[in-house]
Amino acid sequence: MINKYLHIIPVFFVLVFSTNVSGQEIDFGDYSSRYTISPILIQPNLDFGTIAQNQGVKERNIDEAAIIELEGIKYLDVLIDIEVLSPFDTDGCSNTNCTLPLTLKAAYSNFGESNEISAQNKVVYLGETTIDYSQQTGLLSAQFPILHRTSAPPGPPPTPDYEGRDLEAQKESVYLFIYGSVEASGLISGEYSTNILISIYYD
Amino acid sequence: MKNVIFSVVIFLIFSPFAIAQSSAEHAVSATIRVDAVVTPSIELITVNSMTVGNMQPGQREIYVNPVNSSNAGFMIAVGMPDSEFRLNYLSKRELTQSNGNATLTFIYELSGNSVENQSTSELLGVDNRNIRFNEEGRYYLWVGGRVNLENAKPGNYEGDFTIEIDYI
Question: Is the distance from CB of A191 to CB of A88 less than 8 angstroms?
């Protein structure tokens, strides 16, 4: 009977120590329901326009990107997941000759710019991914503060939220740019579409 | 006692996931629509090649006006009706002597029209956007240009003309 407990106790200690390591992070976003994020679709479409059946790669650069403005609490971090919901295909067809290969790129600007035009010139490249429709994968994720922190030593922790606090003064905008490329090779003609879901939440 | 230890172990395994879920539960989302229209490929049909006609003795330059010369080359671009396209061409090309090493530099000029009428066609720069196929999916092009013959050696010269058309 004692031998059985001796096997269980080492497992228990490993789990206790691993929990202590992740416990050092404070997720401020969990502690106030007033910490909201407002996404505003400034340019809600990523339109690749007309493309010939065998045209090859067609790019949409950042100046032609879909744009979302995120208004949130400037000292909090946000987590972003960008996900293509379904194959980029034409209605009623799901073969390879009616599915457009899509490479998704994203960038954000969290430097306190006042509009998307100026923000476009000061961005952090978030990455790119070619969507694998057969595996239903292709996700871009990132974590960054609503307002970029300078490289100076860290200041004191932010003031926790309390009743009566004016949170409007703590708000700032991040601009998120979504763009990329498609590659047409032997496709059937038609109108192609899909949707990209962007999920945003505080850390 | 055994059950208590198992319960603690199970709690510790699942508790980090429970914390992560609580942040994601407050997620907001936005949806972006992605669109493209795939069309039949663009075709470029050469109806007439450019000719320069007979040259006069002492003639220093050949000029074929794409807007009004009957020597201009004539091409038809065929694509998706009413869609916009981008048109680029190389204006400066070298012509090479068929039976020798001499070269001549030809400066191409191009004019275009959405109706088949050369005299009302407009000169096109080397990089054009916002040109549109007509409702029948056609756009008409005339090719001309000029070449300086001052130091040219007698002979036949050949060259090509490069034009690129893509949907916008």
Answer: no
Least confident window among A87-91, A182-186, B20-24: B20-24
In CATH terms, the fold of domain A26-202 is Immunoglobulin-like (2.60.40)
Whole-number pLDDT of residue B56: 73
Q: Is residue B140 part of a domain?
A: yes
Domain positions in chain A are 26-202
Give chain A positions within 8 Å (CB) of B39. 50-53, 189
Q: How far apart are CA B67 and CA A119, in angstroms?
A: 45
The answer to whether the CB atoms of B28 and A199 lie below 8 A apart is yes
Domain that holds residue B155: 43-167
pLDDT tens sequence across B16-65: 433 444 456 678 999 999 999 888 888 899 999 888 777 777 788 889 99
Of A103, A195, A101, the C-alpha closest to A140 is A103
Contact A53, A176 (CB under 8 A): no
| Nearest residue of B to residue A197, measured between CA atoms | B31
Mean pLDDT, rounded, of chain A: 82
Q: For residue B143, what are its two tokens?
A: 């090719």
**Residues of chain B with C-beta less than 8 angstroms from the C-beta of A77:** none
Q: Is there a domain that residue B7 lies in?
A: no
pLDDT per position as a tens digit, B84-106:
999 999 999 988 888 888 888 89
Q: What is the ipTM of this complex?
A: 0.79
Domain count, chain B: 1
Of B12, B24, B83, the CB nearest to A50: B83
CATH of residue B57's domain is 2.60.40
Q: Which residues, other chains included, contact A184 with Cβ-Cβ below 8 Å and sequence gap of 6+?
A: A51, A52, A53, A54, A55, A56, A58, A100, B38
